[in-house]
């Protein structure tokens, strides 16, 4: 043990084109801590799927002054089959100017390794649901 032992961590192989801005040589534990902090600061809920993969939700924007959120929230969630409890940040989710649609956006973040480059990792952010422009807005912020 020692040195670059994190390479032994089970990281899936990155597939598809590599976005240079999401590539890092930091240990995956460090990257995920940073990512989760960013998600919390953006008001994004996340559920742990595996050590280096999280499923994230930016809720749809509530109408100003509306208190109907508590009723609608109960049914939609349902019993979740995920490993961990969903972490709900206490701050308001972030919404951008147009073209962000302020809709619900679901995406996953996962740290993957890049084939043939042992010490480089990629932060894969994948859209699961929601408007593409809204997702792009979040993607750019998380990437920064």
Summarize the structure.
By secondary structure, the chain is α+β, with helices and mostly antiparallel strands. 24% of the residues lie in helices and 26% in strands.
Based on the model shown, name its key terms.
144 residues; alpha+beta; TATA-Binding Protein; 5-stranded antiparallel β-sheet; 24% helix; 26% strand
Question: Which helices and strands occur, and which strands form pairs?
Answer:
Elements: E1 23-24, H1 28-41, E2 45-50, E3 53-58, H2 69-77, E4 105-114, E5 117-129, H3 132-143
Task: Describe this structure as you would to a colleague.
The chain is an alpha+beta fold and 144 residues long. Helix content is 24%, strand content 26%. The chain has a domain of 96 residues: Kinase associated domain 1, KA1 (TATA-Binding Protein, 2-Layer Sandwich), CATH 3.30.310.80. The protein has three helices and five strands. A five-stranded antiparallel sheet has the order 1-5-4-3-2. A hairpin with a 2-residue loop joins strand 2 and strand 3. The N terminus is likely disordered.
